[in-house]
Amino acid sequence: MVRLMRLWRCLLALGFGLVPALARGDTPDALERLAQAVASHPDDPDLLYSLAQRLAANARPEEAVEKLSLLVSRWPAHRPEASLLLGRLLLQLDRPGQAAAELERALVLDPESGPAHLFLGLALKRLGRSDEAEPHFRLAAESTPELSGEAWLLAGLARLERGDRRGGDELLARAIDDDPASESARSARLVLEGAAARRGRIHLQAYGGVEYDSNVTLDSGDDFTGLPSDRSDAGFSWGSGIAVDAVRGERFALSLGGSYDQLAHVDLDHWDMQQFGGALSTGWQISERWGARLDGRISYARLDGDPYLLWGGLRPSLLFALGPRAGWLRGFGEADWFEYDEQPFTTALERDGFAWGGGLEHVAQIPGVRGATFSWYGSWERFDSQARRDELLGFDGAYDRDGFGGGTRVSLSLPWRFSADLGVSFLRERYANVNLIDALTDGGVGTATPSERRDGVWSTRLRIARPLTRFIDVELSAGYLDRRSNVDIYDYDRWVSGLAVRVHTP
Question: Which terminus of the chain is more exposed, N or C, with fewer CB under 10 A?
Fold first, then answer.
C-alpha cells in the first residue's frame, strides 16, 4: 500500500504535463500589456482566456484561476477548455472539490474530452472516491490514445485500492501493452511484480516447446567431414530457471540465478544437448542519467550425455540516458573463457581459450509508432586459443581470430497484445594463422596453398509473443544464419524455427 501511495503521488505530479504545454517565458511587460488589453475589452472572452493561459504558463496559478473563474461565470458555455484548465489549476492548488465541479462542467460541454476525464478521475481520487474515479480513467484511455498508457495505469491502481486484484492486474496489463517502453508501463510492471524491489523475492520460470533445425550438424556438405547427409531434424526443448533478489535498494540491486535447459532430437540423438547454468547480475543507479551493470555467468554443457563444454564470462555495461526521444547509450565489455572436453589430433586445433572485447549500443523509441523501439550496435571481439604450434605439421592455432560486427533490432507492440522483435546482424571474422583444415582438404599437406581463414556471418531472428494469462506466454520464433568462408568446410547455412510456451511468476 505504501508503494501504491507513492505511485499515486508521482502520477498526480505527472498528470499536469499530460496536455500540450502552454507558451512560457513571457516578460512582465508583455503580461501587463495583455492585461491592459483585457481591461480595454471587457466583453472579449477569448482575450480573457488568453491572459489566463499566459498566467498559468508563467507559474501564476492563483491569478489564472481568478481570470478563468470570471470567464466561466460570464460565459459558461463559451470554451470547454477553459473549464478544463480551471479544473487542472484548482487541482494543482490542492482544491480537489472545486476542481471536480469545473471538470464536470468541462465534460458537459465536451463529453469526449480525454484530458477532462483523466483530471476528473484524479480529483475524485483526491477526494477519496476511487470507485467513481476509475470509470473516468477508463474513458480517458478509450477516447484519447495519447493518454491511454497513463489512464490504464491509473484505472488499475484505483481498482487495486478497492481490493480487486484480478481486475486491477488486467488494467495494468493494458497499460503495458499500450506502450511497453513508457514510464507508465514501467510503473505498471512494478505493481504487477508486487513491489518487486524487496530482498529475498524469488522468480521462477519453465518452458517447453518444439523446433525444426535445417542443419543440426552445421555441415557444409564437404565430403571430408563424414557427417550424415540428412542434416535436418526436429527436436523438443524444455527447461526451467530460478532467480533470487539477494539485495535490493534504492540505487543498488543484486540477483542470483540458476537454469537447466535440454534439447532432444527426434533422429539425430547424438546431437542432444543438456546445459546447466548459474548467473549473477548487479546494477547501480549512479545518477539520474548514468547507470552501471555487471552480469556474470557460468555454464556446463553435455553433448549426447558426455561432457562437452565448460565456459564462463563477465559482461560489464555503462548506460547513459540521452532523453525521452533520443533514448540511451550502452557501452559494454565482455570477457569469456572456454574449456572443451576433447582431444584434437593436433595441438593446432585446440579450441580452449579466452575471448574479450566490447562495443556500443544505442536504443531509442521510433517516432510516431507507439510502443516501438529501434537499436543498433557495433562490437569487436578477440579470441586467443590455448593452441600450440604443431611442430610436425608446422601450423599454429586454427581458431585465433578478431571479430568485427554490428546489427540492428526493432521491437514492436502489435494489435491483440502481440509483441514482435526482429534483429539482423553481420560479423566479419579474421583468423590469425594459416589454416590447417584448408591444407588437409585442398590436396594434402605440402601440395596445398592454405589460406588465412576469413568468414562473413549474416544472421536474422524474428520472435513473436503473446501473453495468454498473467503467468503464461506463447512464443513463435524463426532464425536464419548464413556463414560464408574462404575455407569451404566452414561454409554452412541454417534455419531454426520453433514454438514454445513459457510459465513464470511475476
Answer: N
> What domain range includes position 154?
2-192
Count of residues in the chain: 506
How many Cβ atoms are within 10 Å of 179's Cβ, its own excluded? Answer: 20
Confidence band, pLDDT 50/70/90 cuts, at residue 193: low
- Read off the CATH number of the domain in which 443 is found: 2.40.128
Residue 199 pLDDT class (50, 70, 90 cuts): low
If one counts every other C-beta atom within 10 angstroms of the C-beta of residue 80, the result is 18
Query: For position 163, which CATH number holds?
Result: 1.25.40.10
Q: Where are the beta strands (DSSP E) in 166-232?
A: 202-213
Radius of gyration (C-alpha) of the chain in whole angstroms: 31
- Answer for the pair 97, 87: CB distance below 8 angstroms, yes or no: no
Cβ pair 334, 348 in contact under 8 A: no
461 in any annotated domain = yes
Cα separation, 454 vs 383, whole angstroms: 14
Distances (CA, A) of 211 to 32, 263, 388, 475: 73, 9, 39, 12
Which of left, alpha, beta for 221 (phi over 0: left; psi -120 to 50: alpha)?
left
Would the pLDDT of 212 be above 80? yes
Query: Quick check: pTM over 0.90?
Result: no
Residue 475, helix vs strand vs coil = strand
Looking at the structure of the chain, the number of domains it has is 2
User: Is residue 280 domain-shared with residue 182, that is, in the same domain?
Assistant: no
CA-to-CA distance for 105 and 231, rounded, in angstroms?
72
Residue 78 has pLDDT above 60, yes or no: yes
- pLDDT score of 4: 47
Q: How many angstroms separate the CA atoms of 214 and 497, rounded?
A: 9
Per-residue pLDDT, 52? 76
Joined grid coordinates for residue 206: 519453465
| 3-class SS of residue 381 | strand
What distance in Å separates the CA atoms of residue 488 and residue 494, rounded to the nearest whole number?
A: 16
